[in-house]
Amino acid sequence: MGNLYLVRHGQASFGAADYDQLSPLGRQQAERLGRYWAERGLRPAAVLMGSLRRHAQTWAGIAEGAGFDLEPLVWPGLNEYDSEAVIRAIHPQPLEKPQTPEGYRQHFRVLRDGLRQWMDGTISPEGMPSYDAFAHGVTSALDHVRGQHHGQDVIIVSSGGPISTAVGRVLGLSPDTTIELNLRIRNSAVTQFQFNPKRHSLLTYNTLPHLDSPDYTDWITFA
Q: Out of the domains of life, which is the source (predicted)?
């Protein structure tokens, strides 16, 4: 039986011109996760990650904190969907940059509706694959892990969309439930599967064991 640890990237730059960049706190979250794993003797046999900058920066922080010396396998199927393209597909007028609680609620209401329509095949956001193709990119990474790393520990560094899709496919969840999982996953959170050559089984979802101390309460973020 192997263990697969799926890590959502550290805090990025929500609302900034370039979201695909870890904040200083995001780097700290990643390094702290690496230290936590090193303290518990985790020695992964392989690492897969998407090709986004925030994925690479998160892995760099984990590797620094843990002292890992592994070259990650870049797997573009682990990249996040384009949330702005999803929103534009159903809301052609630009949304105001969210700066208030109501602004954030409006942003995520529209995003939730757009995701539902994309997953149903009702809309085709510009520059994005179909949801079935997106999900295949995720499940192909899971298939690779099962086929190549039986009995080993493996880390995947990705984003909320691919991780929630992986959980949704493994558990056979509805689109609505998968979306709710996606919108609640926290930065640097760990989701753990156990796997054998035939299947993955969910063990934990969206956990922050490395931040489970009053000292790190302010390090828990979602965007």
A: Bacteria
Cβ atoms < 10 Å from Cβ of 141? 25
Q: Output the six-digit token pair for 66.
A: 């843990």
Contact 209, 219 (CB under 8 A): no
Statement: the pTM of the whole predicted model exceeds 0.90: yes
Q: Please, are residues 102 and 110 in contact by the beta-carbon 8 Å criterion?
A: no
Tokens linked to 47: 């690492």
Convert 145-210 into a string of H (helix), E (strand) and C (coil): HHHHCCCCEEEEEECHHHHHHHHHHHHCCCHHHHHHHHCCCCCCCEEEEEECCCCEEEEEEEECHH
Residue 4 contacts residue 195 (beta carbons within 8 Å): yes
Work out the number of other CB atoms within 10 angstroms of the CB of residue 132. 9
In contact, 185 and 108? CB cutoff 8 Å: no
Chain-centre distance of CA 202, in angstroms? 15
Q: Give pLDDT tens digits for 91-117.
A: 988 777 777 888 888 889 999 999 999
> Which residue, chain included where needed, has tokens 């797997």?
75
CB 156 within 8 A of CB 6: yes
Which pLDDT value is given to residue 16? 55
**Structure-block tokens of residue 116:** 């539902």
Measured over the CA atoms of residue 168, residue 113, residue 140 and residue 190, the dihedral's sign is negative
C-alpha 190/C-alpha 44 separation (Å) is 14
Least trusted range by pLDDT, from 33-42, 103-112, 207-216: 103-112
